[in-house]
Amino acid sequence: MLLYFIAEQEKEPKFWNDWAQRTLKxxxxxxxxxxxxxxxxxxxxxxxxxxxxxxxxxxxKGQMTGQSGExxxxxxxxxxxxxxxxxxxxxxxxxxxxGTATAYLCGVKANEGTVGVSAAAVRSQCNTxxxxxxxxxxxxxxxxxxxVGIVTTTRVNHATPSAAYAHCVDRDWYSxxxxxxxxxxxxxxxxxxxxxxxxxxxDVIMGGGRKYMYPKNTSDVEYPSERKHSGxxxxxRNLVEEWSIxxxxxNGHYVWNRSQLNSLNPRNVDYLLGLFEPGDMLYENxxxxxxxxxxxxxxxxxxxxxxxxxxxxxxxxxxGRIDHGHHEGKANQALHEAVQxxxxxxxxxxxxxxxxxxxxxxxxxxxxxxxxxYTLRGNSIFGLAPMVSDVDQKxxxxxxxxNGPGFKVVDGGRENVSTIDYANSNYLAQSAVPLRMExxxxxxxxxxxKGPMAHLLHGVQEQNYIPHAMAYATCIGxxxxxxxxxxxxxxxxxxxxxxxxxxxxxxxxxx
Length: 511
Fold this sequence. Notes:
Largest sheet: 10 strands, mixed
Helix content: 25-40%
Distance between the termini: 45 Å
Strand order of the largest sheet: 5-6-4-3-7-1-8-18-2-19
């Protein structure tokens, strides 16, 4: 447990009053809205990153640098605009990641378990796909001439990224090896196949999911002796090889480990496919730094490749394993994943400019994750509450789950957490209801935004509003009339100078 002594300055009202006055001045400066057209747009999606996760990650990030934590700031905390997103699916009060991805990427609410299709499509019913497809903001951006990219810590054909390019009535149809025969015969395509066929030449794709790209029983390049990592495709296709052939004359590069990725010069790469694990990428706490890049490293390479396009880019970045950590009851893993995504947000901010880049950070849904117990200032976020239960007289951790695998009965009662290592990365935080996997939460999640038109993301909004606002800001999709207005499109000395600065900065970054 960290011991926190109140700083002398915090005892003085002047300290807090001065801080509030500085914040007020910054707020007044925001009265002049940034109504420029965004050249670039980046969406950071923290899968399962509810507001309680954001707060706990803030404390953890501060404590990782020796601070108390509570007074710290995440990179997303620094964004000037914050809104709330209503996350329900069309058929679910508490949503899943597929239906929500369709909302914040395609602009329409959908049924749980489906991606890139409207609510008229029924989960697992192949014959409800055709005619109900909906397209994503990534596709709108590509069709407008922008470069586009997907970076994730999950499989590249997992729920969140797949809604950017696929139209599938079942999020679990990762390859044809996971599809029922009647769906294949009905003409439905697996998600991995759609990644390469629906939107030709997505400029950057990075994450996990290698095994879904190779013929069944093909040994994995990294884990050749482990059958669970072997290829899954029944159609015999090698999607990686097909992609490599197609992009060989287009400065395309396929990589499967960190050293290969780091050897690339973004100036000489126009298309990049990076598949670093057979399935999801490893938790940041367990990542092999020799073979797997961090989310921050992937984002850096992606931006340096995409920003070469003079017409701009759209980038989807998912911190996907925040969600997995929570599902497994491993709050330590989940929060470290959230901190890693925040580091990537900071890196993206340093590589781009608020002048021409709209950056949005949000979540698809929350989790039944909480922390409380009247802990003292500076208490380790993974630590014990300062009292014992007045019912069973046992200690408890500040972090708890409403349900999940952390429910455990020992000698007829709740386990005494003081007898185990509750600070371990894989410790299962106690839960009220026993479940093999913890569930999502149904409350609203935050939307943080900065850059051109960021003020459009305000108030309490339906989740499907997000891509409409981002598309308006970047002049893609259906709202383009304002793009020709005098204020938005006429050249000026300021914009010309900024363009020159941007070009010089890009040359330095690519050196």
